[in-house]
Specification:
alpha/beta; Rossmann fold; 6-stranded mixed sheet; 3-stranded antiparallel sheet
């Protein structure tokens, strides 16, 4: 198959008291948009998105992709970090996604994601859309559709779920997940913010969403069929993000060539 997608959304984090509201809607919204563009889409929602299920389904999606195909992974949920034990991280930490069972110390590390991505067939491209983790402040952009009383950060501090004796001395916030992406080739990372910021969970017109997902899909619907990924990120920021209430700068990582490819083809 040449166009495959896995959309993950986790609102429910048992045992952490850090539930979110917009991640499940994000996953369904991405799934609908990708289905309309010819992707075969799977979703993992809340309790279905355990670490084992995420690893299994990511690996299966990669395995089904044929040479020249495009695989899209969307993730909406908390991000976190763990102390780096292997010594391969200059900042002393491994970045991680937070599966539904993170309360059982089941973080999905960037090293594990890299191992999955490295199993791809030759010529398979990956687009990772991450609406999670990472704070700053600016005062441009458009807040007009944002409901009052929010947002909430999509970052789960390690001390919430990790035993104190395993925390170590690392205190930095996580960076974007880059593990396994061949950013010098055809892979792309579309991320909700910079590596020093957080992505925000909020509501628009009384419906919960991630701020980045909401504006990414809103702008995607307005672009013509020949638009590139660079056109897409330019439409999102700075027109919509960041704002004073949503201090996040969306990012696009990838080679110069890949950034100018037609979206989702």
């Amino acid at each position: 198959m040449d166009k495959l997608a896995l959309c993950i959304g986790i609102n429910d984090y048992p045992g952490t008291e850090n539930d979110l509201q917009g991640c499940v809607n994000d996953a369904h919204d991405w799934a609908q948009a990708l289905d309309s563009r010819g992707f075969v889409v799977k979703t993992l929602i809340d309790a279905a998105a355990t670490k084992l299920a995420m690893v299994t389904n990511m690996a299966q999606t990669i395995a089904e992709a044929e040479e020249g195909g495009l695989v899209v992974f969307t993730y909406s949920g908390h991000g976190t970090w763990v102390p780096d034990l292997s010594g391969d991280e200059p900042d002393g930490r491994d970045e991680a996604l937070c599966p539904w069972d993170i309360g059982q110390a089941q973080a999905l590390l960037d090293d594990e994601i890299e191992a999955i991505f490295n199993q791809r067939a030759r010529g398979v491209r990956i687009l990772l859309i991450s609406d999670s983790c990472h704070s700053g402040s600016v005062t441009r952009g458009d807040n007009s559709e944002l409901d009052p009383g929010l947002p909430r950060a999509r970052f789960l501090p390690p001390q919430v779920w990790m035993p104190a004796d395993q925390l170590g001395n690392v205190v930095q916030r996580p960076k974007h997940l880059l593990g396994g992406l061949v950013l010098s080739g055809g892979d792309l990372l579309l991320a909700g913010c910079t590596d020093s910021q957080l992505s925000w969970d909020t509501r628009f017109n009384n419906r919960a969403n991630g701020a980045f997902t909401f504006y990414a899909l809103k702008t995607l619907a307005t672009l013509d069929a020949t638009a590139s990924y660079q056109d897409w990120i330019n439409a999102i920021s700075p027109a919509y993000l960041p704002t004073n209430q949503l201090p996040q700068d969306p990012q696009l990582f990838g080679s110069r060539t890949a950034r100018h490819w037609q979206i989702l083809t």
